[in-house]
C-alpha cells in the first residue's frame, strides 16, 4: 500500500505543479471565484489522473502475457523514463505571471497533458499486489486534494514551489522503478 501512496504522490506532482501555476495567476480573484476555480482544477486533474492509470492497467494486463518474464524490467524503464522526464521538466518551470484563462477546455487540456505519464505508470499496477481500482481511486483522490492545495499555494506564494514538487515526483518514480527490479 505504501508503493501506491508513493506512486499517487509522484503522479500527482505534475498536476500539483500546474495548479500552483494556475493559482499564482489568479491572486486577484475574489474568494468565491477562486474557490470555484480551485475545486474545478481538483476535479479535472483528479479524474484524469484516476482514469489514465486504469487505461494503462487494462492495456498492460492484455500485454503482460506476451512478455511476462521481462515485465518488471519494462516497468522499470517506464518509471525511470517518466522520472527523468519530470526531473527535466522541473528545471523549465515558467515564472511568468501572465493570467491564464481557466476554462473547461483549458482544464481538460491540462488534465490530459499532466496525466499521460499516469497511463504509462498504470501498466506497472499489473506487477504490484494491489487492487488496481483501489489504486486508481487513491491516485485520483490524492491528485484532486493536492491540486486544490496547489492552487491555494500558488495564490499565496507564486510558482517557485511547483518545480520542486515536480522534481521530487520524478525522484519518487525513479525509486519505485528501481525497487521493482531489485
From TrEMBL:
It holds the Pfam family Mntp. The chain crosses the membrane at residues 33-59, 66-87, 107-125, 132-154, 160-181. The keyword Ion transport applies. InterPro entries: Mntp/YtaF, Put_MntP. It is a multi-pass membrane protein. It is found in: Cell membrane. The keyword Transmembrane applies. Keywords: Cell membrane, Ion transport, Manganese, Membrane, Transmembrane, Transmembrane helix, Transport. It comes from the Bacteria. Probably functions as a manganese efflux pump. Belongs to the MntP (TC 9.B.29) family. This is Putative manganese efflux pump MntP. The lineage of its organism: Bacteria, Pseudomonadati, Pseudomonadota, Gammaproteobacteria, Moraxellales.
Amino acid at each position: 500500500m505504501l508503493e501506491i501512496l508513493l506512486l499517487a504522490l509522484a503522479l500527482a506532482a505534475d498536476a500539483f505543479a500546474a495548479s500552483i501555476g494556475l493559482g499564482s495567476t489568479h491572486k486577484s480573484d475574489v474568494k468565491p471565484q477562486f474557490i470555484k476555480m480551485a475545486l474545478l482544477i481538483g476535479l479535472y486533474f483528479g479524474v484524469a489522473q484516476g482514469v489514465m492509470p486504469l487505461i494503462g492497467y487494462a492495456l498492460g494486463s492484455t500485454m503482460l502475457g506476451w512478455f511476462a518474464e521481462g515485465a518488471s524490467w519494462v516497468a522499470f524503464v517506464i518509471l525511470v523514463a517518466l522520472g527523468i522526464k519530470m526531473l527535466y521538466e522541473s528545471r523549465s518551470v515558467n515564472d511568468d505571471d501572465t493570467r491564464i484563462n481557466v476554462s473547461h477546455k483549458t482544464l481538460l487540456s491540462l488534465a490530459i497533458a499532466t496525466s499521460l505519464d499516469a497511463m504509462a505508470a498504470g501498466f506497472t499496477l499489473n506487477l504490484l499486489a494491489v487492487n488496481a481500482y483501489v489504486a486508481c481511486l487513491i491516485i485520483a483522490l490524492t491528485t484532486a486534494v493536492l491540486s486544490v492545495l496547489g492552487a491555494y499555494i500558488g495564490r499565496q506564494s507564486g510558482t517557485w514551489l511547483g518545480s520542486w514538487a515536480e522534481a521530487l515526483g520524478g525522484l519518487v518514480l525513479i525509486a519505485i522503478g528501481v525497487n521493482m527490479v531489485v
